[in-house]
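Milestone M4 deliverable, item 7.
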Amino acid sequence: MTTRIPVPPLAELTERLPESLAVPESDLLAPGSTWNLSQTLQHCAQTIRYSVTGYPRLKPALFRATAGALAKRVFLSRGATKHALDAELDDAPALDPHLPAAEAAADLADAVALFGGHTGPHALHPAYGRCTHDEFARLHAMHLAEHLPGLADA
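Output delivered:
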């Protein structure tokens, strides 16, 4: 059995971003990524921001109550997410491949700050449904670590 290294907290991962921008993208991105670093950071920022402001489109309620809820429980117990790395959020703005990575990283930091300061109920996750702040914090950190394993390992 393999021992999994715990994913660092979301705020800690985003604190690593500025120095990480100096390393080659291939050292940060998950193997097989089809997005560049900027697109990946934009996607992660969208996901985090939407957990506060609301996602553009949700999966059907039956999906969220069954398969989505099961996936959330599995990911939280396992300490890692597993999904298609090129899956954009339904109805979210397109990811800009030409946006400088530094701007995308700053936007991600802003999204994390918005999330960190949020004290009310969170928006429904498109697949998982209702999540507590702690669950979202853990899921966002795992999501970021899945897309950017080099950041989690730094």
